[in-house]
Amino acid sequence: MTARPEGSPATEKRQTPAAGGGGEGQEDVVAVPLRRLLAYARPHAPVLALAALLSCMAAVVELAQPLVVKQVFSQLSDSRPVTATVLLIVGLFLAEALLGSVQSYLLGRIGEGVVLDLRTSLVRRLLKWPMATYARHRSGDLISRVSADTTAVHGALASSLTETLAGVLTFAGSLVLMLMLDPLLLGLTLGCLLIASVSVFTVSVRVMKATVEAQRAVGRLGAGLERVLRAIRTVKLSNAEEREESALISESRDSYLAGIRQAKLQALIHPVTALSVQGSLVLVLGIGGARVANGTMELGELIAFLLYLMYLAVPATTLFSSFTDLQAGRAALARVQELLDEPLETEPPAGPAAAPDPEPAPPSPARRRPSGISLHGVTFAYPGRDDRPTLRDLGFEVPELSRTALVGPSGAGKSTVLSLIGRMYDADRGAVRLLGRDVTRMPLKEVRDLIGHVEQESPVMAGTLRSNLTYAHPDATDAEIAEVLARTNLTEFADSLPQGLETEVGDGGILVSGGQRQRIAIARMLLKRPRILLLDEVTSQMDAENERLLNETLKEAAASCTVLVVAHRLSTIQDADQILVMDAGRIIQTGTHDHLIREPGLYAHLARTQLLPTAPPQPDPSAAAR
Ligand SMILES: Nc1ncnc2c1ncn2[C@@H]1O[C@H](COP(=O)(O)OP(=O)(O)OP(=O)(O)O)[C@@H](O)[C@H]1O
Q1: What homologous superfamily does CATH list for 371-456+531-625?
Q2: Which of 4, 390, 420, 626 to mutate to test the pocket of ligand 1 (most atoms within 8 A of CB)?
Q3: Residues of the signal sequence (predicted)?
Q4: What is the pTM of this model?
Q5: CATH class of 31-206+257-340
């Protein structure tokens, strides 16, 4: 498969506008509707209800306090004892503190629970996307959405939403009691708060935009870092550190600038709210004081009203700032939701196990055994390249328990054929069959259980040598491991490692050589004992001795499984049972090595260029076509 670093221009070109990770930032800010945010809190409804109940109780306790204070003033003016009433106030303070603390713990729990739910759903779905979807997203941005954006949702739910709930209760209660105390003073207070509300609403929309910009910039920073770290050798060998450094710093700066914009806007909210409350305080003091002086209002009433006004200040500030946090959380959830909405790999409809499909083409006279792998009329174009199919009406059969080689020039589509066999992609037309069954009618797990695919990049994952070897067969015994190590000439290597099989091989197999990496990847698939073994250019980094040994191993493997090997070096596949020659998405020649080197065509041409003995030179017929 042609190596395609994520985030390369080709993948960015196909990125949808809403994908969010790549150099966007100019598209409209999206936010999920509030009900969708609330839907995530639904599974925690019982705890939420308890928190709401405690909120109500705290609000009632808080709202009762000014009334009791008013009572103290009345008792004092009537020269009655106030001890019991003062004790009641202290009790109310303690009760409010206790209720507040339990409520805050419950809300924190709900927030964490929602984040856990979101991350669980994300992780479950992320690993089940079709390959084309991964190409549309950048890994670093995905990581940022799973970590940073879900945390922002936590902020919106745990603090904003729930603080809003508590704030609304105290706010509404205060308003009702203030109305009962003095409707005129309440009217003045509401006038001031209205001005604040309009300004806060205007600011909060801009805060949301700035938040989204900051989140996107963090996503791009993650994606950029991931891209650079993955290819750190190339970066160093290309002397590109400074270029990459300034690109990464520029992403950090974008995030910083958006963060500063956000901080500036949020900083406006507090003074606007405080000023409106202070403005109403001055008005109430002035007008209320005058009315107390002329005897139309009691001092206790004015003090109670002022206390309610102070109570109003806290929920008003909380409400206004929670509103902006809520907007930010909705925007973050939109980025998370976008990933959750991506479709998963398609499974066949559940039903009785599919019987082998009738083979459409009559078996070829040369076919001695049933097909291990067969492709019929397969046409396939990568997403976004519909006008240029990579495979065109391609067909071939690989008899079961045989060794077939697929050869052809670079870009002919060999790795793509292997991808279709493993259902990394589905054919646009035609059928891919494994052991007589259409892969699209088999459960994905079954397809992948049947197959052992050693990819061209022979990935070695961060972890120990043992974890790498047993990745596809976690229950492998030590004896089985020792056997495959011997078959892939890795025994000496494993013994030479400081902690043997338990030695860490580094992220991406950075601590092993290219040839060792390829042999580890092959050993991993041999340990799996698949019925179909696919090998994609897996000897490219091996020395001649290891290549010879591997060929022996593959010959042995063909006694128990069907082997399809993609190779550039024809010397490695001369004794294959069948050779398929591929060019521009089609099979153009089929036969054994001895047969093909005598036939004028691409194979003989390739053999000559690799200095293999051939029949007398023939013109290359495909050269004209290509
Ligand atoms: N994920 C992808 N998205 C889009 N195009 C792709 C993708 N992978 C491969 N291609 C394109 O499909 C064509 C065939 O690629 P493929 O990797 O199958 O060729 P190949 O014969 O295996 O080449 P090589 O011998 O160099 O590995 C190439 O033109 C390649 O650019």
Answers
A1: P-loop containing nucleotide triphosphate hydrolases (3.40.50.300)
A2: 390
A3: none
A4: 0.72
A5: mainly alpha
